Amino acid sequence: MRYRRQEAGTALLFLAPALVLFAAFVVYPIVYNVQASTLRWDGVNVGQFVGLGNYKELLEDPVFVTTLRNSAWWILLTIAPQAIIGFLLAVALNRRLRGRAVYRAIFFIPAILSPVVVGIVWQRILDPFNGVVASVGRLTGIDVLTQPWLSDPSTAIFAAIFVNVWMWTGFSMLFYLAGLQLIDTSVIEAARIDGATGLQLMARILWPLLRNTHLSLLLLGVIGSLKTFELVYVLTEGGPNHASEMLPTYTFKQAFQLQSVGYASTISVVLLVVAVVSSLSMVRAFGSGFLTGDET
Amino acid sequence: MVRSSKRYVGIAAGAALAVGLSACAGGSTDESEGSASGTGGASTVTFRSWSPIEQTTAQMVKAFTDENAGTSIDATVFNYPEYLVDLQTRASSNTMPDIVGLQPGALTQQYRDKLMPLQQCASDTWGSDWQSKFYPIGIEQARMGNPDGDENFYALPLLVQTVNLWGNSEIFEDKGVTAPTTWEELESVVKKLSGESYAPFMLPAKDSWLRNVVFLQIANNIEPGLVYQAEDGTDSWTNPRIVEAFEYWSKLFTDGIAQKGAIGLDAYPSGANQFEAGNAAMIPLGAWWIQQSDPSREDLPPLSEGMAGYEPFLFPTIPGGASEAQYVGGIDVALGISKDSANPDLACKVLTDWIAGAGAQKLVNTFNDLPAVTGMNPETFTSDKQQEMWAMFTEDWMPKVQWSRYLESPKVDTALGDALAGVATGDLTPQQAAEKVQSAQDAAS
């Protein structure tokens, strides 16, 4: 009994640094945020307790509804295209190909650029007055290219999603390349001997064997979508008229432009709940093997 | 093992709770617990702001420390959004810098309780008639939003500005047109300049601040001062004259005055770069555009050389509105001193030096914007044209600025920006836009 207590004490000492950091940098901000969400507070002066008032207000806030809808679009329209295009690029660049390292680097470069730079560049590319896309449209007579994609409320969010896909597809490609290189080549050779065509090989052998990569990308994609800030802020500032607003951009505006830190904390709490629930749901649905690396 | 795990979880939760209880959100900070602001010693003050830019701030710091041996200034300049985050975090953790950059109205009011009244500092430095040194709009805006009866100055203006239009002189000359002074002339000039590779009227309307200042110029040209009456509750945003201002804003888009996709173009860097590259004949910006020909800049684009290619003019008058274009503007950046500054005397000395001393001269030399005090001029101009423009801004326009480029409440200001975006995209009619701003006004008051 004494030995077990000693053992537990030792274990606790080993765990202590991590527990302290976890408490200080994860648990404390969450507790603080939840508490702040019950206040009408500007972040500087004394707040006024409003209970669940901010939550009630949030449910009636049409911009909040827009942010939820945009997050749903973002998740749907970024994860699948990034995965499919990334997978196809990875398969193509996993073969012996002259200059494949250069191609890999080219496709990956957007992922390491600052979203601010990407935002400014694409804003100019998509500028309907003087941008490259509109100029090509006018020269070729393709009217659709001259549309004000970022300034039309009905298309702004989709234009931002398109830029996001362009930016992050190389990241998915890198994940799939790593996954492909872990696949036993004898499995692929066996499939070829059995007469599998290239398409069959991709669809029935490689794709299923990359399950953990798909799930990791899915999890990262969902969390990344919910956290999206810089790209949208630079491209559209969440506009026009909140049409491309995301939860983090709206949180930032409320906290620092409208001096409503209490309300912004409420949005953050909702964001946290959505992120935790979606992550846990995925782990529950697919098992935790894709996170731990264990086969499931 | 399960029991041990539970115990560890319990310890973590306990630690979190303890930390949480020790520093709650929204509470007042016990002054006795907090340390005095500023991190330097007795001869050091800290300064944080988003403006002036870093290189200019460094020159101002050097000018002050050269004249005041043994002192030092720890200065950090951020971009504006980052600065707001930094300031809020520092203010709520009692680590506020000695001197802070502020905007008049909501931002100054948010930090009012943490700022030192500055009239004593001003009076000690400049004498009892110190207010007469400043442009009237700067003095008025410095106290914007103060509670009734509170006559303190929690911030003093450092730089001021007008908001106005700029024209491309080369295009105007080439097409034989002059800067429009009336709405009809604006329409006619835009028509004459259409069909070229440049935008006749480039409106970078992605930014809420720019939408608002253009609207305020329109609204004041229709019925001077009415929007401020709507904001203080003595009139209404749904007043037909304000609705008319929304209609004229709408016309910029529906009548093809603004370029296609205007609501997606930001003022900086895109709009400004395009104007400087000669891709626009007119653009709404402000007096600060004169810095395009800052003497320290090299390899200037041809239009910016000595401001050769630019000319400022006021927003055209509106049919049935004021007979003369109105001057809209105000404080660009103001400075405040933390109430808890460890060295308020030195902070005061720095602040007043930067507003009207050797540091201010360095600032003015860069044409960053217009000085808040009258009578300060750059030591070097890049051309006679720039000197004439400077004289016009500082001697003719700035003293006449009567209407603020800001609204007092950030919520109403944001609601106005949103409403203008809604009108621009066709989501809202002018009447609906006015009603939306009025709703925000009702909620905020």
TrEMBL record, chain A:
<keyword id="KW-0472">Membrane</keyword>
<dbReference type="InterPro" id="IPR051393">
    <property type="entry name" value="ABC_transporter_permease"/>
</dbReference>
<comment type="similarity">
    <text>Belongs to the binding-protein-dependent transport system permease family.</text>
</comment>
<feature type="transmembrane region" description="Helical">
    <location>
        <begin position="12"/>
        <end position="31"/>
    </location>
</feature>
<keyword id="KW-0813">Transport</keyword>
<feature type="domain" description="ABC transmembrane type-1">
    <location>
        <begin position="68"/>
        <end position="282"/>
    </location>
</feature>
<feature type="transmembrane region" description="Helical">
    <location>
        <begin position="105"/>
        <end position="125"/>
    </location>
</feature>
<feature type="transmembrane region" description="Helical">
    <location>
        <begin position="256"/>
        <end position="277"/>
    </location>
</feature>
<dbReference type="GO" id="GO:0005886">
    <property type="term" value="C:plasma membrane"/>
</dbReference>
<keyword id="KW-1003">Cell membrane</keyword>
<feature type="transmembrane region" description="Helical">
    <location>
        <begin position="156"/>
        <end position="178"/>
    </location>
</feature>
<dbReference type="GO" id="GO:0055085">
    <property type="term" value="P:transmembrane transport"/>
</dbReference>
<keyword id="KW-1133">Transmembrane helix</keyword>
<dbReference type="Pfam" id="PF00528">
    <property type="entry name" value="BPD_transp_1"/>
</dbReference>
<dbReference type="InterPro" id="IPR035906">
    <property type="entry name" value="MetI-like_sf"/>
</dbReference>
<protein>
    <submittedName>
        <fullName>Sugar ABC transporter permease</fullName>
    </submittedName>
</protein>
<dbReference type="InterPro" id="IPR000515">
    <property type="entry name" value="MetI-like"/>
</dbReference>
<keyword id="KW-0812">Transmembrane</keyword>
<feature type="transmembrane region" description="Helical">
    <location>
        <begin position="72"/>
        <end position="93"/>
    </location>
</feature>
